[in-house]
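Standup notes
- DV: blocked on the single-chain target, sequence here:
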Amino acid sequence: MQHATPAAPAVRETLERLLASETFGRSERARKLIRYLVEREQAGEADRLKGFSIAMDVFGKDGDFDPSTDAVVRVQAGRLRELLQQYFANEGIAEPVRIAIPRGGYVPAYELNAIRLPEVAKPAEQAPAAAAPAEHPNTADEAVAPAALLAPAAAPAPSVARHLTFFWMAIVVVIAMLGVLILRQGGGALLAGGDLPATFESAGLTSSIAPSPASEALPLVYIAVKASGADASRVAASLRAGLSGFDTIDFIGRDTVDKTDPVASATSFMFDVLPGPGAGEITIELQSVATGRVLLSRNLTAADSAPSAVEDRIAGILSSALPASGTIYNYIEQSGIQNGLTQCLLLNGKYYLDQNARTHEAAYRCLETLAENGAKSSLVYSELASLHLEAVNDHYAYPPDATIEKAMTFAHRAVQMGPTSPYAHRSYGYINSRLGNADEALRWMRKAHDLNPYDVSMAAAYGYGLVFAGRYAEGTPLLAHAVDASSGHPTWWDFGLFAGELMLGDTSKAAIASSALRTTATKSHYLAARLIGARISGQDSLARKLLDELTAKFPKFAANPRATFIDRKYPADLTERLVGALRAAGLGDAS
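- DV (later): unblocked, structure below
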């Protein structure tokens, strides 16, 4: 990374892309803080960036604010540093400028990024297909890749080049070995952006996933403990326990990594437990085995690795790294090395981030092809079960004639094939919830959470189940913790948190949760939540706009929202509260 000072326009452009990213999309506080810090520094007011002024200007504290007793600025700055690191390791890897907030202060630092992902040459026979435009672009999902907007980066300094020599050589070897694999798997166009072809067969999706063990291979994850002492042992033990519970990876419980197979090592990853920079500190780094590139780095203080805190801290790290929306799968997608199952899980993750019919069909067809080819992974059937139920709930055109009974069949098979799978138990609980079997739904979701307490998505599912079983005081804190721990979480977490906070009487928190649903306008109940939130927060013009949109897009819901809530098996008191809030927001008589 170069240490020349970037030009102000480049800094501003990077900031705007960062603020619009998925990484920062669900953290209003982080967006507000990074904008304030960068704009003040760029305006020549770096000397103003002290804890006291930040507390007042950004977080609304008054003159009585005492930084020695109120850690809001330190906590939010720490969270911001993590999000910046996550962004520039994933979505923002090709940004020309990298922004950091050095520890010990709040003044932003900027560096020119001399490292780019290598340009992977497409096989000759794929080039025409890659160049052809999508038949039906989905403009709502379109995004221009940052790299396409940038001039070529300056050459790295000689010292950087020497350090990167091995990195680039390894990349060349891996690319050469993967050429045939990538060609055989195909379907990458579905993951490269928001555009989906008119037919999935034309994209090579149905024919590209051959029934073989390789098509169901998951990323391999190893652990290497290179620090000593009681704290390091405790961190390593918690890390091992957490890794063993995730369905989306294969955890190899030994330090030795087999690098003899370039194809396998391309999707192999190592968690290193290292001595930290300070006394009593531990650093956890996640890196690609093939390239040595560090994908995630977290420093744990002595307090973080204490017995009372270490599990929660490790849960946050693993929940940001291992799911299909996490660091490892983002790296696999960016590198173009996905196979059949990882491709399907990536599509599945994209659906739950935006929840529209196009991404639903892409994920469903992908998993359906694996199932038709005799998939052995319980993940295939658990995620098909959930997607099938989504088709029932939201009346998607695909699959035709979706039924709750068919969803239950998929879920039952998932549990049979994966009796200790958290994902299988969660899907079974979800279907029981839709059937109105609240006690049975909670039993299965609680079991999913017990099977992997390190996965915050399981805690979120259990919390969601509790909220929609009318147990708001129990479920809302679980959802709030999950939302706070994971910035790139599915939208249904925010809706569950909105409902829980509304029923607990914290309308301010309910309004904040509803605002996170702004990217999803394809569901009537999400738009209804946004309308209620806008009304609560006094945003009258936005409320009028949302009211018009809700009435135009969902006339049946607007005429009788109560029927939708009853059909979805909402608790009676939640139904009444939502109907009353919609009536207050101007939705007809909200009968």
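- Follow-up: Residues 474-591 form a domain with the Serine Threonine Protein Phosphatase 5, Tetratricopeptide repeat fold (CATH 1.25.40).
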